[in-house]
Write a structure and sequence with these properties.
This protein is α+β, with helices and mostly antiparallel strands and 128 residues long. The protein is built from three helices and five strands, in the order H-E-E-H-E-H-E-E. Strands 2-1-3-4-5 form a five-stranded antiparallel β-sheet, with helices on both faces. Strand 4 and strand 5 form a beta hairpin. The radius of gyration is 15 Å and the shape is globular.
Length: 128
């Protein structure tokens, strides 16, 4: 299934044969501090908060943004990955926490190939 929106992602996750937990990281875009003089600095993403959600706990991008705003932390990009359960059971808290920590490390290292990224408006982002 082609994913073009947050709602497409929710639908695709709900259609999986095994239960899915969504791993969500919110990040700030920051200019790379060590850019060469006169060069345009690259932008890096710095995770500022994360959460995991069952597919059924989310309905719209707007509601997730509202929830994130209640945390009081500014963010520019939302990165999302999934974690599959087994035998009809969602991943346990320890496995979920380990997967979130791995995801945060991957973001810090710029290894986001397996994540979808959305801006604050809900637009799907492409990154290189």
């Amino acid at each position: 299934m082609l994913i073009n929106s947050f709602e497409d992602l929710l639908l695709a996750a709900a259609m999986q044969t095994v239960p899915q937990r969504l791993l969500i990281a919110f990040a700030q875009a920051e200019a790379e501090p060590d850019a060469a003089p006169g060069a345009t600095p690259r932008t890096t993403l710095v995770p500022v908060m994360c959460v995991d959600k069952q597919v059924g706990e989310l309905d719209t991008f707007a509601h997730l943004v509202e929830e994130s705003q209640a945390m009081g932390q500014r963010w520019d990009v939302m990165l999302i990955s999934t974690l599959s359960g087994q035998d009809g059971v969602l991943p346990d808290p320890q496995r979920t926490e380990a997967a979130l920590n791995l995801m945060l490390g991957q973001i810090q290292q710029g290894q986001m190939e397996r994540m979808l990224a959305f801006d604050r408006s809900g637009d799907l982002l492409q990154y290189h």
